[in-house]
Amino acid sequence: MNPTATDPYDPVARWIHWGMALMLFALVGLGFYATSLTYYDPLYHRSVFWHRSLGLLVFALAVIRLGWRWRHPPPPLPADTPNWEHQAALWTHRLLYALMFLLPITGYLISTADGRGVTLFGWFEVPALLEPDKERATRVGQLHLGAAILFSGLVAMHVAAALKHHFINRDGILRRMWP
Ligand code: HEM
Questions:
Q1: Assigned domain for 116 exists
Q2: Interval between CA 158 and ligand 1 midpoint (Å)
Q3: What is the number of domains present in the chain?
Q4: Is residue 2 part of a domain?
Q5: Which of 14, 60, 74, 117 has the least CB density, counted as fewest CB within 10 Å?
Q6: Distances from the Cα of 130 to the Cαs of 31, 53, 117, 126, 127, in angstroms?
Q7: 28 domain-assigned
Q8: Which ligand 1 atom lies nearest to the CA of residue 89?
Q9: 3-state secondary structure of 178
Q10: What is the mean pLDDT of residues 90-116?
Q11: Cβ of residue 103 lying under 6 Å from some atom of ligand 1
Q12: pLDDT at 2
C-alpha cells in the first residue's frame, strides 16, 4: 500500500538517510582537508585512505538506497505544499541522488588514473578498470571538485528547508525522516 503524507519514511530509508548523511559530511570534510595538505604529509595519505574507503561505501549504499526506494515509495508531501516548494524538493532530491553517484564514480576515476585499484579500508581492493591515464586525474578532478561544491550548497539548502519546516511550518516533515 502506498504511504500517505502523515506516514513516516520506512525505517530502512531513515537509517540509510542518516548513515549516508554522516558519511557524506565526513567525506566532504576529509576531501577538503586532504587538499589543504602536501603530498608528503602522512595525514594526507591517511585522509585520502578514509576518503576513498568511505566513497566506495557511499556508492554501494546509494545503489541499495535507490533500489529500496523503488520498492518502498516515500510518503508524498502534504497536499497544501505550494507548487514551487514541491518542485524545489523534487529537484533537490534528484540532484542529491545524482551526486551520490557522480562523486564516488569521479573519485574512482581519479584514484585509478595511475593504474592502481582502490582499497575498502584495506579489506579488499576494487581493481582499476580503465587504462592508466595521468591526465584523467586532472580533468576528472575538476569535475569532482565542482560536484563537491554543488553538493555542499545543495545540502545546506536541504538542511535549511528541513529546519524551516520543523521550526516555522511545524508540519512534521523532519519527524517523518527522524530515525
Ligand atoms: C542535518 C542534515 C540533514 C537533515 C536535517 C535532513 C533532513 C531530511 C528530511 C526531513 C527529509 C524528508 C523530506 C520529506 O519528507 O519529503 C530528507 C530527505 C532526503 N534527504 Fe536529507 N537531511 C540531511 C542531510 C542529508 C544529506 C547529507 C543528504 C545527502 C545525500 C540528504 C539527502 C536526502 C534525500 C535524497 C532525501 C529524499 C529521500 C527520498 O525521498 O528518497 N540529506 N532529508
A1: yes
A2: 7
A3: 1
A4: no
A5: 60
A6: 23, 19, 10, 12, 9
A7: yes
A8: 16
A9: coil
A10: 98
A11: no
A12: 85
Rounded to the nearest 5°, which phi and psi values hold at 8? -80, 170
Residue 1: per-residue pLDDT: 74
- By C-alpha distance, which of 5, 140, 1, 178 is closest to 86? 5
Full residue range of the structural domain in which residue 45 is found = 11-177
Contact 173, 166 (CB under 8 A): yes
Has residue 65 been placed in a domain?
A: yes
Q: What band does 123 get if pLDDT is binned at 50, 70 and 90?
A: very high
CB of 110 sitting under 6 A from ligand 1:
no
Distance 131 CA to ligand 1 centre (A): 37
| Amino acid identity at 174 | L
67 CB-contact burial (10 Å; exposed 0-12 / middle 13-18 / buried 19+): exposed
- Calpha distance 64→177 (Å, rounded): 18
In terms of Cα–Cα distance, which of 94, 102, 92 is closest to 159?
92
| Residue of 7, 9, 15, 17 with the most ligand 1 atoms within 8 Å of its CB, for mutation | 17
CATH of the domain at 57: 1.20.950.20
